[in-house]
Amino acid sequence: MNKLAETHYPIHDLLAWRWSPRAFADRAVEPATLGALFEAARWAASAFNEQPWRFIVARREEGACYRQLLECLVEFNQGWARHAPVLILGLAKRTYTQTGEINRHGWHDLGLATAQLVVQATALGLYAHAMAGILPDRAREQYAIPDDFDVVTGLALGYLGDAATLPDDLREREGAPRQRRPLTELVFSGGWNAPADLG
Ligand SMILES: Cc1cc2nc3c(=O)[nH]c(=O)nc-3n(C[C@H](O)[C@H](O)[C@H](O)COP(=O)(O)O)c2cc1C
Questions:
Q1: CA 80 to CA 63: how far, in whole Å?
Q2: What pLDDT score does 99 carry?
Q3: End-to-end C-alpha distance for the chain, whole angstroms
Q4: Sign of the CA dihedral 140, 146, 150, 151?
Q5: CA nearest to 17, candidates 30, 29, 28, 6
Q6: Disulfide-capable partner of 117 in 7, 11, 41, 179 (CB 3.0 to 4.6 Å)?
């Protein structure tokens, strides 16, 4: 399936080829490969180098541990994500460790670390699918997550599977072209909604 981004300016292949599938192959991800993904996340930039991100990971081979994480997803996401060999929860610390002040950029920095994880995954032939549809309260209870951490996102990860294995509605979405707003709606200069001249 070709889901290559249609770009007006050339971008790196790793960014153009990344997309979020819902069909995953029945193939495990090696622990060392998983290690490389979290290493990539670890080296992300962060405000005051707080590194506010935390991850909870479960591999399908782990059985009960995997089910525990799967049950922290909303039902719709459980439906397809239960075929992914790896599930991850992304968390962000609410305060700076040094000062105790609110870190307004914790979610930003978790996103940045996750983006690095996903780019590394793409480089290793893996695919990831982020999920807002999670059950943060359930996760908090299951993993005894301290109050100072927000449970922000889920991530399903694995090798690309066959879209034919998906139910009809999801198969249709899997094959649909990827769409984005034009740069003129996203990048301004001089005033709000004034498109930047990018040449
Ligand atoms: C923070 C975040 C939350 C998302 N939540 C869900 C979700 O709960 N369920 C789902 O099926 N897809 C989810 N997605 C996937 C997006 O719908 C997808 O990234 C978007 O349509 C763009 O498609 P692409 O990633 O293939 O380019 C989420 C993506 C992100 C980044």
A1: 17
A2: 98
A3: 32
A4: negative
A5: 6
A6: 41
Task: Show the tokens assigned to 121.
Answer: 């995954």
Of 64, 57, 33, 29, whose CA–CA distance to 154 is shortest?
A: 57
Q: Where are the domains of the chain?
A: 13-161
Backbone angles phi, psi at 195, to 5 degrees: -60, 135
Whose C-alpha lies nearest to ligand 1, atom 7?
131
Nearest atom (ligand 1) to Cα of 19: 26
The mean pLDDT value for 153-178 works out to: 95
Task: Specify the fold of 13-161.
Answer: NADH Oxidase (3.40.109)
pLDDT tens, position by position, 60-95:
999 999 999 999 999 999 999 999 999 999 999 999
Q: Is any ligand 1 atom within 6 A of the Cβ of residue 20? A: yes
Give the residue ranges of DSSP H helices in the chain.
13-17, 31-42, 64-70, 75-81, 106-123, 136-143, 168-175
pTM of the model: 0.97
What residue owns the CA closest to ligand 1's atom 31?
Answer: 130
At position 30, the amino acid (one-letter code) is E
Whole-number Å distance, alpha carbon 170 to ligand 1 midpoint, is 13
Ligand 1 center–CA 169 separation, angstroms = 16
Atom of ligand 1 nearest to the CA of 73: 8
Q: Is 107 in the pocket of ligand 1 (CB under 6 A)?
A: no
